[in-house]
Every structure is written in C-alpha cells, then in structure tokens.
Amino acid sequence: MKRIIKRITRNILHMGLLTLLPANAMAQQAVEGTSYYLPRTAINFTLLIERVSTQPGELCMYADRFLKKSDVATKPVTSYRILSIKMNTEGVADTTKLFTPAIDAKHSIHSIKVDEESGILLAVNAEPKRTQKPSPFIAAEKPMPLNPRDYMSQEILAAGSSAKMAELIAQEIYDIRESKSQLNKGQADFMPKDGEQMRIMLNNLNTQEAALLQMFEGVTDRDTTETVISFIPDKSVSKQVLFRFSKVFGLTESDDLSGEPYYISIDDLHKQAQNTAIAETGKKNKDDAGIYANLPGKIRATLYHNEKMVMESELYAAQFGVTAPMDNELFGKKLQTSLIYQPATGHIETIQTEILKK
What is the pTM of this model? Predict the structure, then answer.
C-alpha cells in the first residue's frame, strides 16, 4: 500500500515531476464530459496471414514430358501461412470503474478529456498525449493477370491437339530462354543500343515466358490479410489456447482441432507501478474530487506455437494492479493540477501543478 501523503508540498518534492508555477486564479470553465472510465488492459496480437491459391494449368499433364517439371499442380490447391505476429496493448473501458469528477467552486477541475469511442479518461486540465495507433495493413496492388493466348503464335493457336500445342509452347519457351541468354552474353543478332533498351527487351521476354509457363504451371494468386486477436487477462494462466492455425484452412477457432494450437501464458510478476500523488488506498475522504488513476501491475505475456516460444514481453496491465483516488489537495482551491494518462493502463504519465493566487 502507498503511504499517506500528508502535505502537497511534500508530495511535490518527493515526486520530482511537479512544477510549481505562479498563476492567477482561474474561473471555472465548461467541462468536456462529466463521467469517465478507467481501462482494463487488452493484449492484441496482430497476424499477417498469406493465402496462396493455385489453379492448375490447361496443359499441366504435359509439364514433365516437355519441360521436365514434375512438381506442378494438377488440381486446385490453397494453403495458408503466418507471415508475422506483433503484440501491443490497448485500453478497454472497465465498466466497473466509472467515476464522475467534482465540478464545483471547491475544486480546480475545468477540463476532462476522454476517448470519444471508449469513454476512457485521457487527461485532466490538459490536452491528452497523441498516441499513434498501429497502422492497418494495406495489401500491395496486384499486377494485371496475363493471358497466355495473347503471346501465342498462329501456329500454336492452330494446333490440332493439346499435346501438339504443349510441344509448340514448350519450344517457344526454350527459344525465349535462348534469346535472353544471348542478350546477356552480348551475342544476339540485334543487340540493344543502351542499358534501358536492354532492360525493356529482357522484361518483354520475361513476360512472354511467364505467360506461356502458365499453360503448364497454372496461376498462383497470393492474398495477405491482417487479423487482430485480442486477449484480456484477469489472472495468471498457463498455456491457454489463444487460437489455432491450419495450413489448409487458415485461422480456425480455438476448439477446432484441424488447426495447430497457439498458446498464451500470463505470469503475474507482483510488481506494481508507483505514484506518490495517489491517496491512501481505502481512505475515506469527504471532499472527494472524483479523479482516480490505476496503479497497474506488471505481467509477462508469452505466446507459444505447440511447445516452441514465439514471443515474450513484460508489460503493465491495469487489472493486475489497484485503482485509487488522486490526493484531493491537488484539485483544491490553492492548486490546479494537470494530468495526462496512459490510455492502455490508466496510469498517470505526466503531472504538473500550478499554485493559484487568491
């Protein structure tokens, strides 16, 4: 428990964060919001998941015969993989911690700033700190699909059978590769005049080859999506299933055994954040200013894939600490205090105090 703060001057000297500045007495102003929540801390896991879908080529059955390719898809195949996992924290309104500040002539509270969506307290008598939320993933623009028939000669298009077409296309692919080899060696009949022309010629040959290869190898489409999995711990847990992931089906429910499990463990480190401007926990005060803060507790969050640790982080979570009122002398007639809160934990990040002149 915190020791009782008897005098505000002692409070200021002990913290080293408060700045005493002379100021004129301020008139009461309209308050932005009359009630607020303190947060619980959610742990967010942001997953980038890639889906790879392959449609077999029209001539896939001839790939081994004419191109010596034995590993091409002969039927549609879809697979998934996790590209990356990131962890961050976010404040979620704790509906059991709803408070109303005392806005009257006895208290120097003139501004309450809360998050517009959640109602979580962000600042008192101050502008909240601008916190940059993680930018959402934006997939890269896909190139236009190639149509193999746009790159086929009249002879290929007029082939009387699929086997003959496959043979002619394969020969065209080998001719393209030979042309690229001669260009790179400087042995082509018509060499480009400069590097830019060389680049254009090679790009055109690469495009032709890729389009014709689709007849054998098929078309592979890749999509990357972002998924956020939120977990709000309220106690220590040991390897609780957070989600499951399948290479065939992608992200699955935690009880779907078709996916491999990803576990989360939470360890309470029994270390509480400090703040000497907090009044004694449990102390009753008739002149309650209604300004509260969290003293979050430190935890260790660990993510496992089967038995292998994927990531580990030590962080503060509001629900593993305590909630207590701020010392009421901070908001009396003699002082005006500015507070800026951490949105994810409800802990006070910065505090400044001004002496009010009569």
Answer: 0.78
First to last CA, the chain: 35
User: Does pLDDT of 1 surpass 50?
Assistant: no
The torsion of the CA quartet 29, 30, 35, 37, rounded to 10 degrees, works out to -70
Give the DSSP H or E segment for 208.
helix 195-217
User: What is the structure's pLDDT at 34?
Assistant: 76
Q: Which residues contact 335 (CB under 8 A, 6 or more apart)?
A: 8, 108, 329, 353, 354, 355, 356
**How many whole angstroms separate alpha carbon 173 and alpha carbon 163?**
15
Q: Can you say how many angstroms the Cα of residue 54 is from the centroid of all Cα atoms in its chain? A: 29
The string of DSSP codes covering 131-180 is: --PPPPP-PPPPPPPP-GGGG--HHHHT-SSHHHHHHHHHHHHHHHHHHH
Measured CA distances, 98 to 38, 39, 90, 106, 272 (Å): 7, 10, 18, 22, 22
pLDDT of 334 > 90? The answer is no
C-alpha to C-alpha distance for 245 and 242, rounded to whole angstroms: 10
Give the pLDDT of residue 183. Answer: 86
Q: What dihedral angle (degrees, nearest 10) is formed by the CA atoms of 157, 158, 163, 167? A: -70
Lowest mean pLDDT among 130-139, 236-245, 250-259, 264-273: 130-139
Backbone torsions φ then ψ of 83, nearest 5 degrees? -80, -40
- Pairing relation of β-strands 20-24 and 348-357? parallel
Coil, helix or strand at residue 201: helix
User: Position of tokens 């890729």?
Assistant: 210
DSSP structural state of residue 232: -
**pLDDT, average across residues 339-357:** 90
CA distances from 55 to 146, 150, 166, 219, 347 (A): 14, 19, 18, 5, 53
**How far is the C-alpha of 250 from the C-alpha of 36, rounded, in Å?**
40
Res. 341 pLDDT band, cuts 50 70 90: very high
Highest averaged pLDDT of the listed ranges 170-174, 180-184, 329-333, 335-339: 170-174
Closest CA to 301 of 225, 355, 243, 231: 231
